Amino acid sequence: MQDHVAATRGISSQTSRRTFLKETSATLLAGTLSRSNSLFAAETSSAKPETRIKKAVKYQMITEPVSVLDKFRILKDLGFDGTEIHYRSKVDPKEVRRAIDATGVQVHGFLNSSRDELKDSIDQAKYYGGTSVLVVAGRVDDKHPYDVVYQQQQAKLRKHLPYAEQQGIKLLVENVWNNFLLSPLEMARFIDELESPAAGVYFDVGNVVRFGWPEQWIRILGPRIVKLDIKEYSRKKQVDEGLWKGFQVEITEGDCNWPEVRKALNETGFKQGWATAEVKGGGRQRLQDISERMDRALDLA
User: Fold this and answer.
1) What is the model's pTM?
2) Does pLDDT of 81 surpass 50?
3) The domain that contains 233 carries what CATH number?
4) What residues contact 57, with CB distance under 8 A and at least 6 apart?
């Protein structure tokens, strides 16, 4: 009997020891995982985000009477990541390339406007190291019927999209006051029918405010939006002073609801694209003001 009790106690002791070790190991493992998770969370929260909206201005907005290189240096000093060059800009491409290499400020796109010949613009964008060509898709008026313009503009884009794809350049249609693509639903359809990864939208936030709400367009167009133009519009100035006077208001002082725009951009995943100011330019002081206003509008600071 005593032997049985002793054996039983031995087994109980061994079982208790194994249970203790098992529970202790589990506790230590849980503690280690907990600390590891805490450290990972701390590192993650303190790390800078890998993606962010990049800030730019149109090159023609830089009116400081200095060299191309110094203009790029001004942009870098003021926190701009890049610029865009219009096909009418009188600038030496080689000087621009040297300025890019010297400062790291990028020419992220080339502005083709409404020209029919897009190949040269694609080549220019490629030369500068950009990723897009901005396209204005025709104009509807009494001599240019809506349905005809629709077909013609799609044909023009289809002609050049294969080459754009080869060069790694996107052809981005901008929403402008050309009496065409008057709703985000139609603009989405227009882009989708092109059936090309190189086709997208260059969304101008301010151009919509006259007859709509930018945040609604952003949500509907979604990932079709590749880049943004940043400007303002005042409906009050439009009514009181005239249609085009609505644009004569500073960024963050018009009728664009920037918190809602930011929310819509975040919802649609626009977190690392380019946002380019398209407003009245000037010298260093004026450009600094634009930079700070963009920071407030898009919460970039």
Assistant:
1) 0.83
2) yes
3) 3.20.20.150
4) 75, 80, 83, 276, 277, 281, 287, 290
